[in-house]
Amino acid sequence: MYKELVISIVVIALVVIGNIITQNNTIEAIGQISGELTLLREEMEKESPDQEKSEQQMKKVEEVWENKYKLMAFYTEHNELEKVQTELTRLKADIHMQEYAQGVENLESCIYILEHIKDKSALKIVNIF
């Protein structure tokens, strides 16, 4: 009886510690990506957006996304990550076509999905049951 209790406590502790580590990584990754997207939004919302600066900022967003995606793919649903990738692809196309109004909408959608991923992975009673 004592042996099973110790094993159960160790397993629960490992699950909680693993969740804390992945949640902290998710929060850090989403914060970094959202920060880069916010800088991109500021450039796109200018009265006369600079095409070159917007494309450079989009490259920074893609670089950050690629780095964070590799690790997040281990513990996050791929469907959620694919939604972010789709919005980033749309955003890149909008910047290339100089459709900044549509690009801002896609950017906001991307940030919303990222926040959803963060909320979904949080250790909350609602998410457990």
Model description:
With 129 residues, the chain is mainly α. It is built from five helices and no strands. It has helices at residues 2-44, 51-72, 78-96, 100-121, 125-128.
Number of E-type strands: 0
SSE arrangement, N to C: HHHHH
Mean pLDDT: 89
Helix/strand-derived class? mainly alpha
Largest sheet: none
Roughly how many Å is the radius of gyration?
Answer: 19 Å
Low-confidence stretches: none
Helix content: over 70%
Relevant terms:
mainly alpha; 129 residues; elongated
Give a brief outline of the structure.
The protein is mainly α.
Task: Please render the helix and strand layout as text.
Elements (H helix, E strand, L loop, with lengths): L1 H43 L6 H22 L5 H19 L3 H22 L3 H4 L1
Helix pairs in contact: 1-2, 1-4, 2-3, 3-4
